[in-house]
Specification:
With about 300 residues, the protein is of the alpha/beta class. It has one domain: NAD(P)-binding Rossmann-like Domain (Rossmann fold, 3-Layer(aba) Sandwich). Helices cover about 35% and strands about 15% of the residues. The strands form three sheets. The protein has a seven-stranded parallel β-sheet, with helices on both faces. A two-stranded parallel sheet has the order 6-11. Strands 8-9 form a two-stranded parallel ribbon. Strand 4, helix 3 and strand 5 form a beta-alpha-beta unit. Helix 1 packs across helix 6 and helix 3 runs parallel beside helix 4. The longest helix is centred in the middle third of the chain and has 22 residues. The radius of gyration is 19 Å and the shape is globular. InterPro entries: Epimerase_deHydtase, NAD(P)-bd_dom_sf. It comes from Plantactinospora soyae. GO terms for molecular function: oxidoreductase activity. Keywords: NAD, Oxidoreductase. This is Nucleoside-diphosphate-sugar epimerase.
């Protein structure tokens, strides 16, 4: 899970963070979260957008090497950190080959470019889809649960593959330039109406989320995880699960496994509605704990 010791140091007030994909689902929450925490944020996306909390907004494509190079030095010196969120966020939006090439090319130019420029650390979005279950097009079951980062992927879709390769790009940047990289494997992410719609859909058809393993994360916690990494001083390369500690359904987790993934070996007791995604590495490596749940809020099904 980790590479050699590197140059990382914890970010503090007035350090500059470049956020790509700043107008996206997660990016739009990450930018104000980091700004409110005292960081200076440079927000990047490929279409014009508003980002009131950002100190600087740049519009361009992260597949344009010249634009990336300029974005990494917006004030004449390298930014202190990069948060790379720009990507095709799910399958089916563009042809499969474009999903792969766009996501990997963007990750390479941003992360390798950041290392080359002397950026102190980088965080990037990966996905639990890298394990291979969510978009496989057929039912696949994990060999064991809860799923930790050591579980071997069985990916057979281009989106999951793009996330696997993005993780390798991060490892490459750490080896090549000594820049710490942390790849966060997110599940379904949402809050408000988006989360309410997801919960309602699962309430109507719990089987429909079997390939996603009923994993979820509040968008605010995704932003919190990014901030936790940036301020941790973490060194090396890491791939880390970030999921809520519970599932997105009221059906007990042990029952879900018995019904939909009976071949999966249970390695630890599954109490109540405990998540099938093990996020304990996030607590151990950078002290992250989720803060937002859905069960006592208005979105509860």
């Amino acid at each position: 899970m980790s590479e050699q010791e590197t140059r990382g140091s914890a970010l503090g007030a007035d350090d500059v963070v470049l956020v790509t994909g700043a107008a996206g689902l997660i990016g739009a929450v990450v930018v104000p979260h980091l700004a409110d925490a005292g960081l200076r944020v440079v927000a990047v996306d490929r279409s014009p957008f508003a980002s009131p909390k950002a100190e600087l907004v740049l519009v361009g494509d992260v597949r344009d090497s010249a634009f990336v190079e300029e974005s990494l030095r917006p004030f004449g010196r390298p930014v202190d950190a990069v948060v790379h969120l720009a990507a095709i966020p799910s399958p089916g939006q563009v042809p499969e080959d474009e999903t792969l090439t766009q996501n990997v090319q963007g990750a390479y130019l941003v992360l390798d470019g950041a290392g080359r420029a002397g950026v102190r650390c980088a965080v990037a979005a990966s996905s639990v889809s890298a394990y291979g279950y969510a978009w496989a097009g057929r039912d696949l079951s994990p060999p064991y649960a809860p799923i930790d980062e050591d579980q071997a992927p069985v990916t057979i879709d281009s989106y999951g593959l793009s996330k696997m390769v993005t993780e390798q790009v991060g490892a490459f940047a750490t080896r090549r330039w000594g820049m710490p990289t942390t790849l966060l494997r997110f599940p379904f992410v949402g809050d408000g109406d988006r989360l309410a719609a997801q919960l309602a859909q699962i309430r109507r058809n719990v089987a429909g989320s079997r390939r996603e393993l009923w994993a979820w994360l509040d968008t605010r916690d995704a932003a919190g995880a990014v901030h936790a990494v940036l301020t941790s001083g973490l060194t090396g390369h890491h791939v880390v699960n970030i999921a809520a500690p519970d599932t997105s359904t009221t059906v007990p987790t042990a029952e879900l496994l018995a019904r939909f993934h009976p071949s999966t070996q249970v390695r630890a007791p599954l109490r109540g509605v405990e998540s099938l995604v093990d996020s304990s590495a996030a607590r151990r490596l950078f002290g992250f704990e989720t803060r937002h749940g859905w069960r006592d809020e208005a979105t509860t099904p």
